[in-house]
Write a structure and sequence with these properties.
alpha/beta; 7 helices; 8 strands; about 15% strand; globular
Length: about 300
């Protein structure tokens, strides 16, 4: 199934009434709760010895942004979540998302996630078609052939170029997270995984200041939101890919991947595996963290050969 909130049909025309207002206030923990031996534990709590933690997501609704490319991280993540039993919605800025949705058996949406009104319409449409979102993967913002990264020294970087990188890499994660955290908090369970990058939080290269700043900002957003949501049973984490072989990879990037300790670039599915685990009930005690997926590249000494 596919849906375009800009096409003027149905749910896309209905903006969320609270789009400009903050999410409902969260329940605050007033003290530790003792659960007597043999008593039932809350559904959102940790597994017991008789009920080991599961990675399954049966029946849960997930939204994966930035899933328009068949060889990208978003597509691989959606495929993983579907394999774990989730009902998945995917979104991108172009109508090619329709093809991806048909291939995966997902529900597809077209939306500009830098636009507050379109994110609000998207949220309403997903809820109408699938139900309340319990898992959110903020993957939108990574570069593509049609929207390449801006590579320019700070002294030559225009304000519009700076703003565009921040908007698509950081603002998208903020707007989408804000649209769904209220519902997650009310239900007492949720998973948010933001796609960062090694560029910014771990290292940087000349001429990519805007991208690096945005991805470092994603990690800051992740940590702050994790602390805001922890009492509501919602975890928020980030995954930071290194050199990954996608359809948007340049020859130079692939060569850099060959120079990693692993001797090759990573695959989208290897990143998706990390994302899927953090989305699962088994990751209930992990929040505010950044998991680096880079073949060991960020931990070696610069002179290693």
């Amino acid at each position: 199934m596919v849906f375009d909130p800009r096409a003027g049909d149905g749910a896309g025309d209905r903006l969320r009434g609270d789009a400009s207002r903050p999410a409902p206030s969260h329940r605050r923990r007033t003290g530790l709760v003792s659960v007597p031996t043999g008593a039932d534990t809350p559904r959102s709590g940790p597994a017991t010895e008789d009920e080991p933690a599961t990675t399954r997501l049966d029946g849960r609704v997930a939204l994966v942004t930035g899933a328009g490319s068949p060889d990208g991280i978003g597509y691989a993540t959606a495929r993983r979540l579907i394999g774990l039993g989730a009902r998945v919605a995917i979104v991108s800025t172009t109508r090619r998302i329709h093809e991806r949705a048909s291939e995966l058996g997902a529900v597809g949406f077209v939306a500009d996630l830098t636009d507050e009104a379109e994110v609000a319409a998207l949220a309403d449409a997903v809820v109408d078609q699938l139900g309340e979102v319990e898992v959110l993967v903020n993957n939108a913002g990574l570069t593509s052939r049609t929207s390449p990264e801006v590579l320019r020294p700070v002294g030559q970087l225009s304000y519009d170029e700076w703003h565009r990188e921040i908007e698509r890499n950081l603002t998208t994660a903020f707007l989408c997270s804000r649209a769904f955290i209220g519902g997650m908090a009310e239900r007492g369970w949720g998973r948010i995984v933001n796609l960062a990058a090694t560029a910014g939080p771990v290292n940087a290269l000349p001429a990519e200041a805007a991208y690096a700043a945005a991805k470092a900002g994603v990690v800051g957003l992740t940590r702050a939101l994790a602390l805001e949501m922890i009492a509501d049973g919602v975890t928020v984490n980030a995954v930071a890919p290194g050199k990954i072989h996608t359809g948007a990879s340049t020859v130079a990037e692939l060569r850099q991947g060959l120079a990693t300790p692993a001797g090759r670039p990573g695959t989208p599915d290897e990143v998706a595996a990390a994302v899927a685990f953090l989305c699962s009930p088994a990751a209930s005690y992990i929040t505010g963290q950044m998991l680096v997926v880079d073949g060991g590249n960020s931990v070696r000494e610069a002179g290693f050969r």
